[in-house]
Amino acid sequence: MKISEIFYSIQGEGMLAGVPSVFVRTSGCNLRCSWCDTPYTSWEPEGVAMRVAEIVAEAGRHPARHVVVTGGEPMIQPEIGELTGRLRDAGRHITIETAGTVLVSVACDLMSISPKLANSTPREREGGRWAPVHERLRYQPDVLAQLMASYPYQLKFVIAASEDLAEMENLLDEIRADRSRVVLMPEGIDPGALAERGRWLAEICKERSYRFSPRLHVMLWGNRRGV
Ligand code: SF4
Q1: If you measure from the C-alpha of residue 21 to the centroid of ligand 1, how many angstroms do you get, rounded to a whole number?
Q2: What is the pTM of this model?
Q3: Residue nearest to atom 6 of ligand 1 (CA)
């Protein structure tokens, strides 16, 4: 399996924000978000090939019970079922971070799904050559429904503007999501912008009963790799 990085940090986002976790970042993605914050796993994928046993052993070097399998898109990895099964055998709590476009059978304690909104389509980058594929793949309501029915889940959205909210709420209606499992995070890659947008978004969460999530890793360490 192609692995971009394995590191120990705290979960920065979502229902488990603050929990010490080992991150296993797979390399390779079926989407090409215009604003992708891990281009080294999508636009220019890099990493090393590791066997499942090596990945499990590396994760085991750290004192955390929680393992976050992220990407890229971990659900496109052919060995994702085997990896998550071995992590479960080792007693780990497994979060999978996915865009929710691919359905495969995995061992998972929290399916952390981040459906991609229209603002992700790369209309300019590389002359827009990825835009048609991305637009066709990014929203798969049947896959989302199956993932929600099969695993404990959260739906995470990064919100930059009110148009994002309107689109997200249409999507939530369409897939009949449990609103108590929806987590909203402010868009931003520096602590100042996050705080300002966060105050705006917190008011919306209060009004509409969504869960607000910080982005602790950006707050603490800025927009860097391996944190
Ligand atoms: S789904 Fe995630 S990894 Fe893939 S392009 Fe979008 S932001 Fe990047």
Answers
A1: 21
A2: 0.95
A3: 33
Per run of 10 residues, the mean pLDDT along the chain (length 227 residues) is 97 96 98 93 96 98 97 98 98 98 98 95 94 97 97 95 94 95 89 88 95 87 76
Give the residue, out of 42, 98, 157, with the most ligand 1 atoms within 8 A of its beta carbon, to mutate for a pocket test: 42
Q: What is the spatial distance between Cα 214 and Cα 194, in angstroms, rounded to a whole number?
A: 8
| Dihedral angle over CA of 135, 139, 142, 143, nearest 10 | 100
Nearest CA to ligand 1 atom 7: 36
**DSSP H helical ranges for 7-116:** 52-59, 80-89
How far is Cα 204 from Cα 75, in angstroms, rounded to an integer?
Answer: 32
